[in-house]
């Protein structure tokens, strides 16, 4: 097995020069662990002498949906505590008598639940966390469940509440106890980060309130509104922690620790769960753009510029972490780099 390391370095270096992002870190590997890794650019353009490092901490953004929420839901499913196909109102009193009660966890995981497409938590429900929770769980559906595949952060927010209801733990503690600590993901945690860890965090978007780039505080507004912890976003992580997570997914026996979720959950999740509906979805994961079903390459992205890929059929995984939000919210330049990186990592 070979990797096009020189071409990956060149690709990511071009992204730095073109100001797609200040810097990036990457790794590719297989069932034996990390096979190659590298860095490009700097942590912060205002400090040009401080390069990106392998242990740079990144705002994971929507990768939180995988490393915290998906893993926790998989743990509860594997323990028989959650039936993905049971209507929520059959076991969750908070949604009994409300439209969400007719939805299943599987619908939420495939983005086919029909819940509203935008979070808009503060505008709709205010700033009290309990008011937000009540509003989200009691809101009318956007469309009938199973009618369409529509990505929405609300699905993750609801599943986060569900995981907390079933486990009796806050999501941050559940993820730490059942996934992060067992897998040795010692640099993964929800924010806001303490100063000593925030110092090695890649800054993201300019924040008008603080008058600086966000660093160690989640970029996602919903996560900030809810104190840093929710199913949508809010986790911070590092390259090596994500590499260990993906290794566990691909080859649990080779993993240094054992998470609460197992190979059955990975197999269930990395398979088409949306029937004839398009775009194709697994459970939170989706096929990588530009790939064929035979390639069996699945991906999840984060809005801040993060992404990770995995292919059980090829026995490979890859991680690319950037802080592209430092410059812009325009997705297209990073989309092109991501697709090219995936092509080099899985050929």
Automatic annotation (TrEMBL):
Gene3D superfamilies: DD-peptidase/beta-lactamase superfamily (3.40.710.10). InterPro entries: Beta-lactam-related, Beta-lactam/transpept-like, Diverse_Enzym_Activities. The keyword Repeat does not apply. It comes from the Bacteria. Keywords: Hydrolase. Residues 9-333 form the Beta-lactamase-related domain. Pfam families: Beta-lactamase. This is Beta-lactamase family protein. It comes from Streptomyces katsurahamanus. The lineage of its organism: Bacteria, Bacillati, Actinomycetota, Actinomycetes, Kitasatosporales.
């Amino acid at each position: 097995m070979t990797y096009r390391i020189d071409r990956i370095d060149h690709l990511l270096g071009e992204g730095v020069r073109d100001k797609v992002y200040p810097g990036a870190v990457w790794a590719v590997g297989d069932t034996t662990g990390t096979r190659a890794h590298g860095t490009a650019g700097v942590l912060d353009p205002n400090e040009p002498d401080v390069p990106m490092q392998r242990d740079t901490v990144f705002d994971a953004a929507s990768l939180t949906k995988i490393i915290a929420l998906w893993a926790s839901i998989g743990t509860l499913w594997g323990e028989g505590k959650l039936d993905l196909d049971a209507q929520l109102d059959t076991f969750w009193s908070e949604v009994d008598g409300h439209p969400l009660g007719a939805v299943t966890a599987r619908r939420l995981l495939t983005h086919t639940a029909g819940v509203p497409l935008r979070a808009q938590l503060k505008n709709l429900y205010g700033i009290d966390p309990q008011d937000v929770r009540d509003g989200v769980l009691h809101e009318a559906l956007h469309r009938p469940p199973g009618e369409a595949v529509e990505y929405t952060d609300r699905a993750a927010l609801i599943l986060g509440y569900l995981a907390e209801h079933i486990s009796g733990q806050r999501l941050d503690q559940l993820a730490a106890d059942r996934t992060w600590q067992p897998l040795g993901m010692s640099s993964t945690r929800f924010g806001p980060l303490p100063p000593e860890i925030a110092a090695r965090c890649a800054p993201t978007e300019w924040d008008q309130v603080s008058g600086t780039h966000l660093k160690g505080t989640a970029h996602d507004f919903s996560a900030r509104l809810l104190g840093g912890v929710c199913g949508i976003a809010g986790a911070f992580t590092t390259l090596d922690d994500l590499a260990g997570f993906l290794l566990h997914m691909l080859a649990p026996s080779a993993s240094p620790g054992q998470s609460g979720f197992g190979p059955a959950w990975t197999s269930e999740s990395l398979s088409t769960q949306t029937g004839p509906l398009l775009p194709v979805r697994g459970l939170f994961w989706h096929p990588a753009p530009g790939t064929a079903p035979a390639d069996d390459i699945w991906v999840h992205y984060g809005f801040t510029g993060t992404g990770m890929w995995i292919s059980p059929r090829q026995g490979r995984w890859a991680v690319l972490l950037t802080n592209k939000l430092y410059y812009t919210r325009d997705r297209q330049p990073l989309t092109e780099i991501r697709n090219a990186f995936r092509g080099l990592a899985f050929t």
